[in-house]
Amino acid sequence: MPKKKVCSFCGRGENEVKLLITGVDGYICENCAQQAYEIVESTGVMHQQNAGEKFALKKVPKPMEIKEYLDEYIIGQDQAKRSMAVAVYNHYKRLQQPVSDDGVEIEKSNIIMVGSTGTGKTLLARTIAKLLDVPFTIVDATVFTEAGYVGEDVESILSRLLQVSDYNVEAAQRGIVFIDEIDAVGRARGKNANMNSNDERENTLNQLLTEMDGFGSNSGVIILAATNRADILDKALLRAGRFDRQIHVELPDLNERKEIFGVHLRPIKIDESVDAEFLARQTPGFSGADIANVCNEAALIAARNGKKFVQKEDFMNAVDRIVGGLEKRSKITTEEERKCIANHEAGHATLSWLLEHANPLVKVTIVPRGKALGAAWYLPEERQITTREQLQDEMCATLGGRAAEELVLGKISTGASNDLERVTKQAYAMVVYFGMSDKLPNLNYYDSTGQDWGFTKPYSEETAKLIDTEVQKIINEQYDRAKRILSENKEGHSKLAQVLLDREVIYSEDVEHIFGKRAWISRSQEILELQEKANGKNKENADKEAKADATMENVTDTPTEENKTGKIA
To answer: Beta 176-180 vs 361-365: how paired, if at all?
Structure first.
């Protein structure tokens, strides 16, 4: 008699169920199969298997392929992306190399990225992890030392990799750990030991160094770190096997800012008055994050004013608000104060327009903004090197406000305090750091190693007096020069001050209307013109190469007379 088919789990016969799955030694119905699936799903066993498949180390892309992938997500930073591509490729390629018989192992290295805030260090790390599809975790070094006690153990950063990889140890061993603001715990030990010492921080650094040494050459964990203070890091962090690869992530230059603006302007409705090139020139020293903030702020300003499109004026107001703060029209000023402020700002504007190496004017206002009673915005020249003549012109333009007060009003005010601070620091830098004084030429007293702790001076008291004399001489010369130029252009300066009093704001067009077109082309304009020529030349070369390729396709393999005789065609 044949055995009755029943479910081995619930005991129901084949007539009582819709489906009965036959196994080797038994049967299972559809209901029990569903319950079994739910049990397996709840245990997470399937997820662990999937995690292993997800983070399986695939073929390591070539450095050029990594660079091309980074180009899709990150604008500029070509040198940083090349260095990162090569370093990451070498690291993961090392893991796939067979162990040699002679016992020689390729030393592992980690990467530290140095750059200002907002330059894209975290984005670089995230993009690399996304490309390689490996476990990735971010740790802020400030959590190690919070409120004077150790906030988080260093070993916990490794456990985070396990969590990200769903506790797949093999996948976690190929992960990436990104430590942000590593200078919070990586400061050089032993400096100022008796002043503001932080034992917890030093202990944390010691633990971090020990953990990094624990990763042998066979370990696949790569540590990326970021800081904007590489000069204060402990030397032990930067030795071979630890953070021996430094990648500098610089602030975007003029052309890169133009591209970044182009990206952030795409989702915004703008009118024809908005020019990405002008905005790029208006925002020197801005990082990618700052540019994104400018675009967002401009859109908010336009929305508050009920505009359907974001205009050039909105972007200018956004830059003004970010750099100078909010306008304070409620601040009450007398007519005499307004006149003093107008002459002061007109003095800056006049000299910046008439001096070759001074930064050209963009906008001047006498409306209080932030802590300032007036403000002026210029187009700074992003120079790679600066000459003495350029520094002197900048100082002269900075002293133009104080000089205008003395010439027009016959008295000086406290409004020039910030200008005097900048000029004094600049003059001291010229004498002490750049060797640009007559009596102390070719001398530099700056300690770039950071070992001078501020307790001693590298020069005598006589030299200190000489430095003070030279600084005073430089400042007085430029102040007298500022007064002389303003006296020669007294009428133009007076007109400019009056326009400021009437309208409260002037632009470069107003200055050009009074003094005429500026006689010198700006460095930014020169760079843009050179870039356009280079792009045109590259396009021309590409067209020539395309024509050459088309010609080569039509060439037959018929040998020439010279080829027949053995000569090269």
So the answer is: unpaired
Q: Are 207 and 75 in contact (CB under 8 A)?
A: no
What φ, ψ does residue 466 adopt, rounded to 5°?
-65, -40
Write the DSSP string, 127-194. HHHHHHT--EEEEEGGGTEETTEE-S-TTHHHHHHHHHTTT-HHHHTT-EEEEESGGGT-BPTTTTTT
How far apart are the C-alpha atoms of 219 and 95, rounded to whole Å?
8
Q: Are 419 and 399 in contact (CB under 8 A)?
A: yes
Structure-model confidence comparison of residues 415 and 548, the more confident one = 415
First to last CA, the chain: 93
Position 395: which residue type?
M
pLDDT at 474 over 90: yes
Distances from the Cα of 291 to the Cα of 264, 283, 308, 370, angstroms = 8, 8, 21, 21
Tokens 């303003």 correspond to 486
At a CB cut-off of 8 Å and minimum separation 6, what does 32 contact? 7, 9, 10
Query: pLDDT tens across 52-81, in order?
Result: 445 555 677 888 988 999 888 888 888 889
Domain ranges of the chain: 1-43, 63-97+104-248, 254-324, 335-520, 524-564
Closest CA to 154 of 171, 179, 134, 176: 179
Q: Determine the average pLDDT of the residues in 443-450.
A: 74
49 versus 374: which is more confidently predicted?
Answer: 374
Mean per-residue pLDDT of the chain: 78
Asked whether 304 and 314 are in contact (CB, 8 A), the reply is no
Q: Which helix (H) or strand (E) holds 111?
A: strand 111-114
Rounded alpha-carbon distances, angstroms, from residue 502 to 343, 365, 378 = 13, 11, 21
| Cα gap 344→399, rounded to integer Å | 10
Determine the Cα–Cα distance for residues 322 and 156; give it in Å rounded to an integer: 38
Domain 63-97+104-248 has CATH 3.40.50.2300: no
Q: Give Cβ neighbours of residue 425 (< 8 Å, ≥ 6 apart).
A: none
CATH number for 335-520: choose from 3.30.750.24, 2.60.40.3080, 3.30.420.10, 1.20.58.760. 1.20.58.760
CA dist 184 and 142 (Å) reads: 6
Which residues does the annotation mark as catalytic?
Answer: 345
Q: Give me the architecture of the 254-324 domain, per CATH.
A: Orthogonal Bundle (1.10)
Report whether pLDDT(535) > 60: yes
> DSSP letters of 273-326?
T--HHHHHHH-TT--HHHHHHHHHHHHHHHHHTT-SSB-HHHHHHHHHHHHH--
pLDDT higher than threshold 50 for residue 399 = yes
